[in-house]
Amino acid sequence: MIVLGLTGSIGMGKSTVAQMFRDEGVPVFDADACVHELQGPDGRLVAAIETAFPGTTDSGGVNRAALGRAVLGDDSAMRRLEAIVHPAVQTERAAFLARHAASPLVVVDVPLLFETGGDKAVDKTLVVSAERAVQEARVLARPGMTKAKFAAILGRQMPDAEKRARADHVIATDIPLAETKAAVQRLIACMRGDEGR
To answer: Can you tell me the distance from the alpha carbon of 75 to that of 6, in angstroms, rounded to the nearest whole number?
Structure first.
């Protein structure tokens, strides 16, 4: 099995590319979706997050807006949150890899792959990238997003140029969707070929 770590800064099209892998039959572990489940109604991290950050949960689980206000811009608070969330995500990822042990290729979609040292736990890395103007337009079109919030998120992420320099593979997402899809298909064919050697 080849484990491909998929990453990219906010608004770079990572979710779209992850879906392209799924459409080609490649199992994808989505770290963000895992976090949503762990923090959702009856999620197993809700109590620990409420203890660490009182008033950030309700009947729907973690109130992401309230939690965001509690941790964004506060490195110490962010580290406390990460100490709760990251080990739980690692456990879920290990279970995913065990379930798909017979697959020649799996993708782990992790937004902060390089920032958290997660690139050391995968065989190859893929960064999705777009021009800054395209990225900004995508992000600012999201409900509730502001320039200040966008800047705070970017501040926690490694610069796109550095991610691209560290990646084994880079796929552009500011080109026609069909071209991005073709690049994904070529990469899958290449990696499945590598695995067979």
So the answer is: 25
Q: Is 60 exceeded by the pLDDT of residue 194?
A: no
Give the tokens for residue 120: 């050391």
CA gap 26, 105 in Å, rounded: 6
Tokens found for residue 17 = 């590319």
- Note the pLDDT of residue 152: 85
The DSSP bridge partners found for residue 172 are 129
User: Rounded to whole angstroms, how far apart are CA atoms 53 and 19?
Assistant: 33
pLDDT at 196: 46
Q: What's residue 197's pLDDT?
A: 42
**Side-chain half-sphere of 20: how many Cα atoms within 13 Å?**
21
Q: Decide if 107 contacts 26 (C-beta within 8 A).
A: yes
Name the CATH code of domain 1-27+104-197 (choices 3.20.20.80, 3.40.1190.10, 3.40.50.300, 3.30.70.270). 3.40.50.300
